[in-house]
Amino acid sequence: MDSLFRFLFEYRPVIFQQGEFRLAPSTGSYVAAVITVAAVLLAIITYRGLAGRGRVRDRIVLSALRIATLGVMLFCLFRPVLVVKAAVAQQNFLAVLIDDSRSMQIADWGTQPRGAFVKQAFGAKDAALVKALSAEGTRSTVDGTDAAARALRPDNRA
């Protein structure tokens, strides 16, 4: 039963017990609610007007099915969410891709090539920009040619 619940709702029942269920409706949800109420009223009126055709039980069952279907659709439009109070530990990760192609050797940054600024900003471990980026989480620097070489490999592994 637990695996079926997990298949349908993605999380175990324990998570639902710890969390808080909420709806996050948008403006369109309220418009849909008005339309749904009108459709429910129309369904009731339509099935009441068929007094001569079919049995009363059939009309009640069909009305109930139509109203239930519209109710489920309306519930989905109101965007149900589960707010879990337990914090999930995450690690921030920042990837910095450095372009070291031939175009970075063009001298258009004053009298120096474009790559000189990149080497100045990212070259040293104690550079201010490197320190600022590393303070936010784990940082990984990848040269452009290394990334391109990995992308071109058939197995796509580093």
Describe the model.
By secondary structure, the protein is of the alpha+beta class. 53% of the residues lie in helices and 13% in strands. It has 7 helices and 4 strands; from the N terminus they run ααβααββααβα. It has helices at residues 2-9, 13-18, 27-48, 56-77, 114-122, 128-135, 144-152; strands at residues 20-23, 80-83, 93-98, 138-143. It has a two-stranded antiparallel ribbon. It has a two-stranded parallel ribbon with strand order 3-4. Helix 3 packs antiparallel against helix 4 (56-77).
Brief rundown of the structure:
By secondary structure, this protein is an alpha+beta fold. The chain is 53% helix and 13% strand. It has 7 helices and 4 strands; from the N terminus they run H-H-E-H-H-E-E-H-H-E-H.
Count of discrete alpha- or pi-helical segments spanning 4 or more residues: 7
Give the N-terminus to C-terminus distance in angstroms.
Answer: 41 Å
What's the rounded overall pLDDT mean? 76
Give a count of the beta strands, DSSP E runs of length 2 or more.
4
H and E string: HHEHHEEHHEH
Largest sheet: 2 strands, antiparallel
Give the helix level as a range of percent. Answer: 40-55%
